[in-house]
Amino acid sequence: MARLTLPTDEATIRSLRVGDFVELSGRVITGRDAAHHWLVKAFRQEVAPYLKDSVIYHVGPVVRKNPDGTYTFVAAGPTTSAREEPYQADVIGMYGVRGVIGKGGMGAKTLEGLKKHGAVYFHAIGGAAQVLAQCVKRVETVFMLEEFGVPEALWVIEVEDFPVVVTMDAHGNSLHREIEGQSGERLKSLLGLSA
């Protein structure tokens, strides 16, 4: 398993291939539907330095506020990434994002954005939210907490040894597209529809 420290550079990201297992350490920023819409509606100068050469994580975390005012992630499982398909390629290009963490993969527009700008899609383990939360070592800051609420806010976190698999790379390869094609052919065969 490879180890990758964030933020990173384009050359390192372009060296990754579909099927690579990676442990991420360093700065990650979370974002879901409201965050992506907000990020593309106008360039957000205050958030841009956190996104540059880093990774955005599709997650709706459960977060505890501690007595000293700090925050602790209690659950941090990936959410379905397809909802961000209309925005993701634009967010990658506008902010220089080098990776996206989520589950379920993304579509053709995002795949083209990964290739054009030098980024990858990392698939995280679904159903392991409490285990993944243990990889979140610190909450650095948060944006839009009052406006969007805890799950939709943009949390800037520091992770350590966060396990992911590259399922879409910067060379136009998508494990999701490949499996969909193979499954479709298998279904046709089972239904007696193949030539």
Automatic annotation (TrEMBL):
The GO molecular function terms of this record are: hydro-lyase activity
What is the name listed in the Swiss-Prot or TrEMBL entry for this protein?
A: Fumarate hydrolyase
Domain of life of the native organism:
Bacteria
The upper taxonomy is:
Bacteria, Pseudomonadati, Acidobacteriota, Thermoanaerobaculia, Thermoanaerobaculales
Domain Fe-S hydro-lyase tartrate dehydratase beta-type catalytic per the UniProt entry, residue ranges: 9-178
Which InterPro entries does UniProt cross-reference here? Fe-S_hydro-lyase_TtdB-typ_cat (IPR004647), Fe-S_hydroAse_TtdB_cat_sf (IPR036660)
Keywords attached to this Swiss-Prot or TrEMBL record, sorted alphabetically, are: Lyase
Family membership, please give it: Belongs to the class-I fumarase family.
